[in-house]
Design brief:
Helix content is 53%, strand content 16%. By secondary structure, it is α+β, with helices and mostly antiparallel strands. It has a 5-stranded antiparallel beta sheet. A hairpin with a 6-residue loop joins strand 13 and strand 14. Helix 7 packs parallel to helix 11 and helix 10 runs antiparallel to helix 11. The protein is elongated.
């Protein structure tokens, strides 16, 4: 019995779809809709997070350095502002320190400092900052002033009566200190005069400098970001138009996109897209021709099968029925062979578009095995089928299944067109390239048809041999896939045909040779 519920909470928790109460059913519907909407939004956010935006990446690379450099610039501005603020006040502090130094005298081998009320009023007339002075005698004893100013070691290259500066602290307050060393007596230690000033005026001037430099940046940086945004938007606009032009196209429209009025930076993308469209159109046209030709070629064996089947059904004589069944079997064999060749051709073409199995293949071993397999078929026609090899591994890089199909097609083609009692030689040669040859003494191929015969379903006129016209097309497709070539030539003395396949050769090492043919290097007993 359906469960009854009257609340949204019940609708959320219930896993059943049937409700006897209308409010309960409505609540369940609303809750289900909310869950579906939240799932879609979550998936969309995940897709957006995974996708990469050229606009966003360029914007990040332009703005991130700006945002990182700006705090560094503020720190540099602060240091420069403090230096600028210290310069004029350091000069005044140095003059006051030298003024105190001029009041230092020596009386009875004792240091005296005559600070008159007038001098004191000049020193302490500043209402913004507090001044402290100090005079230390020959033995660093306090002669006059504040003891709170710390003594420092003299510079390594000391110059008397020259002001030096340093930063310090007095009673927890930062101060700027100017100090001068005097040498009133040549045989005694120098006298140190120091004057310290709090940093109120300096900090105020530095703050005004920093504000004057940084505050305009708060308006300049957003304006720069806006200008960068606008510039990038205008720069990306051709790509957006390119995307819209692609989206508006019909699935069957493979025409190139015009490049007039397109920026130079975008043209390579459009040229690459147009090249891809041209290749795609060529492939589609080839597939359409292939499908049409394949349908036409399949129609012949299927029509023969249908006719032979109808004849067999009408016959009552067992011998005639048996003959019809033999014809049906032959037609089925031809259809199966045609289908296998079509599949092989499709597989070879697909290998151009995606990766396929690549390994070191011994072309000589493949050719020898294929020759042995075709011996029974050759013997039926009393054809002398032989093999001539180098006796060494002939290595090439490729797909062993496709390379074997190439060899089989060349041998099959030779066996079909070589008359009874003929001669076929399968040969491998090693030079700069790996060479495979299939030579026969058949009727040969006219020179003007040697290139045409590699087209699909092409057959030489006036030849009664059964064939689909796909074998050599498959051979050329596989050879080109392996960066090789196949060509037809006249046989020796102009008799027959020489099919020659050439591949880039992979040089073998001694270890590889031992691994493939260890028996050749066994010592004889």
């Amino acid at each position: 019995m359906p469960s009854r519920c009257m609340s949204i909470a019940c609708a959320r928790s219930s896993s059943r779809a049937a409700y006897t109460s209308t409010p309960c059913a409505d609540s369940a519907t609303v809750w289900t809709g909310r869950m579906a909407l939240s799932d879609r939004l979550l998936r969309r956010k995940q897709e957006e997070a995974e996708s990469q935006s050229v606009f966003g990446e360029i914007l990040d690379w332009m703005l991130m350095p700006l945002l990182l450099i700006w705090p560094l610039s503020v720190i540099l501005i602060q240091g420069v502002a403090n230096s600028i603020a210290d310069d004029p006040y350091d000069k005044a502090l140095a003059e006051n320190t030298l003024a105190i130094a001029r009041l230092v005298s020596v009386r009875a081998d004792r240091i005296k400092v005559d600070i008159t009320p007038q001098v004191r009023s000049i020193l302490y007339r500043d209402e913004s900052d507090t001044l402290f002075y100090q005079v230390l005698g020959f033995n660093n004893e306090l002669v006059a002033g504040e003891i709170a100013i710390h003594w420092v070691d003299p510079p390594l290259k000391l110059e008397y009566e020259k002001p030096y500066f340093r930063d310090g602290e007095i009673r927890g307050e930062e101060v700027r200190i100017a100090y001068v060393y005097l040498k009133p007596l040549p045989d005694r230690d120098p006298v140190l005069v120091q004057m310290a000033e709090t940093r109120n005026k300096r900090n105020a001037l530095a703050s005004r400098i920093i504000s004057g430099v940084t505050l305009p940046q708060f308006a300049i940086i957003p304006l720069a970001v806006l200008l960068v945004w606008v510039g990038l938007s205008r720069g990306i606009a051709p790509l957006n138009r390119f995307g819209k032009a692609i989206r508006r196209r019909l699935p069957t429209d493979l025409s190139p996109i015009p490049t007039s009025g397109v920026p130079e930076e975008v043209k390579p993308v459009i040229h690459a897209f147009n090249d891809m469209m041209a290749r795609l159109e060529q492939n589609l046209q080839g597939q359409q021709r292939f499908i049409g030709d394949a349908a036409h070629q399949m129609r012949t064996p299927l029509t023969g099968l249908k006719m032979q089947t109808e004849l067999a059904l009408q016959e009552t004589d067992p011998e005639l029925i048996r003959a019809s069944l033999r014809n049906i079997a032959e037609s089925a064999d031809r259809a199966a062979r045609l289908i296998n060749q079509l599949l092989t051709l499709a597989r070879a073409e697909a290998s151009h578009e995606k990766s396929h199995t690549i390994e070191l293949v011994d072309l000589e071993a493949l050719a020898r095995e294929a020759t042995l397999e075709w011996l029974p078929a050759a013997m039926e026609k009393r054809i002398d089928l032989g093999f001539e090899g180098t006796g060494w591994p002939l290595q090439v890089s490729g797909n062993p299944l496709l390379l074997r199909e190439l060899i089989v097609n060349l041998i099959d083609n030779a066996v079909k067109y070589t008359p009874t009692g003929g001669r076929i030689t399968v040969r491998t040669r090693a030079s700069e390239f790996a060479v495979l040859e299939v030579e026969d003494d058949g009727p040969g191929i006219p020179e003007d048809e040697r290139d045409l015969i590699f087209e699909r379903f092409y057959r030489v006129l006036g030849n009664e041999a059964q064939g689909s016209g796909l074998g050599l097309a498959i051979a050329r497709e596989i050879a080109e896939l392996h960066r090789g070539s196949v060509q037809l030539k006249a046989g020796p003395d102009g008799r027959g045909t020489l099919a020659q396949a050439v591949f880039p050769r992979r040089r073998f090492t001694i270890s590889a040779l031992l691994a493939q043919s260890p028996e050749k290097f066994q010592p004889s007993l």
